[in-house]
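Subject: for your reference before the review

Hello V.,

The reviewers asked for a structural picture of the protein, and I figured it would be easier to keep everything in one thread rather than splitting it across files. Below is the amino acid sequence we used in the manuscript, unchanged from the supplementary table.
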Amino acid sequence: MKIGLHKVALTLFALVGIPASADAQRYAVRGPLEASVDTVSWSPEPAPDTLPSYRARTDSLMSVRTRRAAIKARGLRIVVSIAARQLWVIDGRDTLYKASVAVGMGRKLEYRGRRWTFATPTGVRTVLAKKQEPLWSPPDWHYAEVAREYGLRLVNMPANKPLKLADGRKLVVRDSLVGIMLPDGFAPLPADEHIVFDSTLYVPPLGTKNRFVDGELGRYMLDMGNGYRLHGTPREQTIGSAVTHGCVRLRDEDVQWLYDFVPVGTKVFIY
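And here is what came back from the structure prediction:
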């Protein structure tokens, strides 16, 4: 049974049919941030008048505090409104850039005793690193989603121990690739497909080539830690919607602007 990684991702994100918002408003930058820029005065007004609705009072308070902190802060910062699905790059009281974003879907997944909540967290984070042409290493929740959707068992492959299949063949890792050990040698499996045998989805070990997906994060990525990122997407029609598993997703041209002009160490206020 073959399940392509990109095919599965397309299936998952097609479940949410919320139309994208209007195109992002962009402000031309003629040079580095220290140089002159076309700016507009920023105040609380561009942000939405209402805050997102939360079930927990502590989350609501965090959102209010984060928004207030973003307004009062000085210096360069990124501000993200989950409710408005908008991102601003602010320097002092000047808006340098504005873009529409996709945010967390707010759904929960339970699979065999494990639980995940797919929401964009509120609070203050920091740009820890920037990458061009980033590879995505799917977390465990991705495989749990696929297993549940296709009615498969889920087994994590050990990195240094072969797994015996029902027909006697063995799944092994050689040179960072998962494959089948045959009588005449090692046969690698396609790195861009899920590994499914005997109605079981096998999760490849971290670090193997089968655990990486090219193109899912777009061309640029800003890492905020703990698996949360500002990144591009091959599915730009989802921008403006609540469809992600927690990351903030942008059009590639928008995240490229962030990559070029926002340095590592910049604070990100998410409310």
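For the response letter, the relevant points are probably these. The radius of gyration is 21 Å. DSSP finds four helices and 24 strands in the chain.

Happy to draft the paragraph if you're swamped.

O.
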